[in-house]
């Protein structure tokens, strides 16, 4: 019997507001523990919440970008649970009437087909604090308590770990492009809980599901789902009874382990938040927010393919972040060579950024400088290999490429007469290699080209070198 996975995701994304959801404390990441706090976010007696309007606006903006309907009348609720990171012993969230409902994301499968993944709801809520576990005991940092979140709950439409990853990548790119969240998973700005069960292919009845908590990387999520899929299939085949539970992924061991049995909604004793008024969202406000939504990543990628004639894959990579997309577009327009712009950004520049743990906004050079580098290479002033050296210097110093080329004397040698003399000299100095060529080994021509480039310190025009080496070899 063949099985398939049934996966649904609950994604928590911290919103990029300056202050918390119910008070004026800073949402800035980091800081000394328990310094971004006040009586409200510490849940002290008598402190009352006041809803941050920007949080609601960002919730609406996310919903519109994800094709959701907006509930014009909604409310905040209390979700009761007792845990050290929840100072009030309840979380203010939305239960029955979330701000957004019934949306979707369209993902592209490996075979090129497109699939809509339904979004059940998006609701706004406050984050909890952070527990720090040490040998001496557990400590609590409440800096994060009260930071605003949206929780995006998908429908169980995903059928493989790969589909789940594609969904998350698309979701992350949309949220970051509309600037409601920075989506920095390493800082906890984007966290994911995943629900998975298995069922026989073609069945309409879902199996017993397990929830995997707080995944903060796409790779970890995919591995955890792959492990759970195999665990569930083996249990069903062996006639074992699965229990609905909440699990955590152990990256080191490559396994999930049970934390507790899965809570149900009534375990949280939801009821309306009495200290906050009902939200009334006007049509005018919704339209105002709609107008603020920029061109979305998938829309931008489609335009890049049409406008710049770059491959679909390049366009999808270049639009993963808004900063990269903007940088590419400016370089492509100014250099009039979109493919070269794409190659530099996806290749050497991405490698340098990854190595130095940087983002596009951290680059010392600007799009105009990269466009200038592409133009001097295309003009033949320097070779592509020399261009890589110039780029490294630009990365370190931020200097213009022409300044670096002049300072280091990197202008390409296009003098055929000078290059011919170097070729003749190298052939004279390597009689054995010449004889190998005469004996039929044509591959030694590449050896000659390499020696010429080395002798000229990479400044000789590679095309001219290849042409002259072939000419001289034909005379042997």
From TrEMBL:
InterPro entries: Asn/Gln-tRNA_amidoTrfase_suB/E, Asn/Gln-tRNA_Trfase_suB/E_cat, Asn/Gln_amidotransferase, Asn/Gln_tRNA_amidoTrase-B-like, GatB, GatB_C_1, GatB_Yqey_C_2, Gln-tRNA_amidoTrfase_suB_CS
Pfam families on file: GatB_N, GatB_Yqey
Keyword Ligase carried by entry: yes
Record EC number: 6.3.5.-
Main EC class the enzyme belongs to: ligase
Domain named Asn/Gln amidotransferase: residues: 326-473
SMART domains: GatB_Yqey (SM00845)
Record keywords: ATP-binding, Ligase, Nucleotide-binding, Protein biosynthesis
Enzymatic reactions: L-glutamyl-tRNA(Gln) + L-glutamine + ATP + H2O = L-glutaminyl-tRNA(Gln) + L-glutamate + ADP + phosphate + H(+); L-aspartyl-tRNA(Asn) + L-glutamine + ATP + H2O = L-asparaginyl-tRNA(Asn) + L-glutamate + ADP + phosphate + 2 H(+)
Role noted for this protein: Allows the formation of correctly charged Asn-tRNA(Asn) or Gln-tRNA(Gln) through the transamidation of misacylated Asp-tRNA(Asn) or Glu-tRNA(Gln) in organisms which lack either or both of asparaginyl-tRNA or glutaminyl-tRNA synthetases. The reaction takes place in the presence of glutamine and ATP through an activated phospho-Asp-tRNA(Asn) or phospho-Glu-tRNA(Gln).
Subunit structure: Heterotrimer of A, B and C subunits.
Family: Belongs to the GatB/GatE family. GatB subfamily.
Protein name (Swiss-Prot/TrEMBL): Aspartyl/glutamyl-tRNA(Asn/Gln) amidotransferase subunit B
This protein's encoding gene: gatB
